[in-house]
Amino acid sequence: MKRALITGITGQDGSYLAEFLLAKKYKVFGLERRSSQSKRENIAHLAGKIEFISGDLLDEASLIRAINQSEPDEVYNLAAQSFVAASWKQPVYTSEVTGLGAVRLLEAIRQTDPKIKFYQASSSEMFGKVQETPQTEKTPFYPRSPYGVAKLYAHWITVNYRESYNMFAASGILFNHESPRRGLEFVTRKITNAAVKIKLGMEKELLLGNLDSKRDWGFSGDYVEAMWLMLQQKEARDYVISTGETHTVREFVEAAFGELGLDWKKYVKMNKEFMRPAEVDLLKGDSSKAAKELKWKPKVNFHQLVKMMVENDLKQLSNSK
Prior knowledge:
The protein contains ten helices and 13 strands. The protein is an alpha/beta fold. It has two domains: 3-177 and 217-241, 3-Layer(aba) Sandwich (Rossmann fold), CATH 3.40.50.720; 184-215 and 247-282 and 301-320, UDP-galactose 4-epimerase, domain 1 (Alpha-Beta Complex), CATH 3.90.25. The strands form four sheets. A seven-stranded parallel β-sheet has the order 3-2-1-4-5-6-11, sandwiched between helices. It has a two-stranded parallel ribbon with strand order 7-10. It has a two-stranded parallel sheet with strand order 8-13. Strand 5, helix 5 and strand 6 form a beta-alpha-beta unit.
């Protein structure tokens, strides 16, 4: 039985990856920070199937203990301060967790068992002010937020450990991927949740920032399969994971409100408070390398994704109401 250690297991991607690996008959371990309240809603349905280990990306000694305890074949580093907007308010903390957290984990693996396969969750935010469209593995990076910069450090240090120590260390440059398990602070879930609340008479309006930002949105459940596939290859490489389609925030709003039979223009208002200091206008990935080498392609399309998120929020909020 293969063994995997996942950091960030309680997050959106961590929960889908844990499900996926359990279905593949893995023994799954989750690194969990000590916090005042447990945030296990995303993996509540997997209770008893995951073994939790206390640890923190800020504390290398705890990572070494976690690796010794779990003895993993594969480590997936999904933990991060992952909310872009918060990275301007907490740039140092974001750098410590999202950036230096990766090198602490790589160093812990190197010292403990360098044969362990390592996956780093890289991000399309590293492209930022895009130098070409669509973006591939060869597109120059130009991050536009402390989060993007921290992810870029983590990405390059992963390449560095692969080349310096011959470790199996791969990065997935994942474009935006959403699901019903997305946190409410993220724009997609903020939209579907607010649309449902307006439909149910629980709210009257939705305040948003830039409606013209274009993103390449996929489904988290599809993307975790790509992470796993990267670690099953003979050689560690980096891959762009995306749908290759681009949609504006406005289109997402229109689709979400449309699912509920609402005219979004009556309820959505622009608010400068939600504008980024440096905007990322357009992200669109070319995942042809992943299609060719990993035989991976997305299964859920844009409209299916929006529908899935709206229906889930409708079910949850109708029950709570």
